[in-house]
Amino acid sequence: MNIAQFIIGIPLFIVLLFGIGFILNMLIKTTWMPTFLYLSIVAGVLIYLVINHRTPHVVDYVMLTSGLLGAIASGWTIKILRMKGYRMF
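^ Putative membrane protein YuiB, sequence as received from the core. Prediction below:
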């Protein structure tokens, strides 16, 4: 992965997971479920990589962490919007 892909990938993962988490929060109405779902998927991917003797690199961890930040931000945003009285569906 070159540096341009890395720099563009970080905000892309944040926005992607924020959008997916926001939509799931509106439809399912569980604030932190997308975060836990993302963590379980990431854990499964990391276990798969270890079983197949492939070591994840620092770049992989940074990308996965940026996705986690997006998922957490979506839960936090929905929580704040609900406290202010906005109803989602």
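Residues 39 and 75 are 14 Å apart (CA to CA).
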